[in-house]
Amino acid sequence: MMAWAEQGVPEGSWLRAGRQTGGRGRMGRSWESPSGNLYGSTVVRLRDGDPPPHTLALVAANAVHALVAPLAEGQARIKWPNDVLVDGAKIAGILLERVGDTVVVGIGVNVKDHPRDLDRPVTSLAVQGAGEAEAGALLERLAALFAHWLAIWRAQGLEPVRTHWLLNAHPAGASMRVNQPDGQVLEGRFETLDRDGMLILRLANGDMHAIHAGDILLI
Fold it and tell me: What pTM does this model have?
C-alpha cells in the first residue's frame, strides 16, 4: 500500500493480506500474522483544512472499536495511542505511516488466532465468542466504519472524534505507565486527551504531563 500510495491510489482503497511474513507494529516491532486474521491498509489523501494527520489514529480507533465491540463477549476499550483491548487483552492494533501528502493506515485484528508468548495479555475474536467471524467480511464492515469517521473528522473537525474516543477508552483515573521514546518512564493516571489528541497524564504530585508518543501499560 505504501508503493500504491506513491503511485496515486485513490482514497478509500483498501488492501488486505491473507497472511504476512513481515508484519510489523509501532517502533518496528514484529506483528505475528497467521492466516485467518485481518490485516488491512487504506490511504487518506490529506487536504487543506484537515485536522492534524496523527489524529487519524483516533479515527481508526473509533472504527476498530465499533467493529470489535458488538462481536466480543468482553468489554472492548480503546487504549492510547493505537490499540483496542477486550477485558484488558489486546485484540487489534493500528499503525500510521506517511508518504508525502498521504497517510497509510494499517490495521490488524486478531480474528481466528493470537500470539501466546508476549509480555502482555492478547486475545482474538474467536476466544471472545465470535468464531464465525471472517476477515474478508470484517474488512468490508471496517471500511464502512472508517469512511464514516473519516467524513466526520474532515467535515466537523477533531472534536466529535475525540469525544467519541473518550467514551470508549480507558476511563479517567486509570493508572498507567508510559515508556517514552527517549527511555524515560512516567507513571500516573489518565486525565484526558487534549484538543490535539495528546494524552494528558496526571502525575503523583498533581502536575499534568502531555504525552506525544510512547508505549502505554495499564497498571
Answer: 0.92
